[in-house]
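pinging the channel bc i need a second pair of eyes. not urgent but kinda urgent?? the chain im working w is below, pasted from the shared doc
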Amino acid sequence: MSLDRSIRWQGLDPATIEHCHVISTERDTRIRGTIITPTYGLYYRIKLDDTEHVRTVKLERTDGAVLELFSDGAGNWSDDRAEPLSDLRGCIDIDIWPTPLTNSLPLWRCDWALNQPQRFAMAWIDADAMAVRRSEQIYTQLDATHFRFQSADFERVLEVDADLLVEDYPGVFVRS
């Protein structure tokens, strides 16, 4: 994947605004984003290796809270003190609340066939609580621009652009 672009989203509930930039080369992918929420500002950085596996994640809130995670790219995670996070074993991708950017990570990494669901164990990061937990998620490609996203009892059909970046996440985020 080769990509160098900025994207903006508006969060609908709660009301947020996000600006992020993705630079992807043959060597790696680097993502930087800033989100303004009603209660805090958030800056995040994500680095993917050349196979689109997450290697580092850092979130910094304006109130000083920081969360930093490291992965070997094979599903083994540690925190900023090099302590293993065994609950995340097997998670290759991350999902950060509140951004739709991270929905693109499994879309970029996998080969897709129409109407063939793919299951993912995600390291789900709640920026409100600055906490991480395992989340089982399913994505199904419906056509060239739509993927069904399922997690527990939550489901949405995401509209994506040609770079597999979210255009519309009904009721949650929209490109601005």
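so The first strand starts at residue 3 and ends at 12. and The chain has a mean pLDDT of 97. — does that match what u expected or am i reading it wrong
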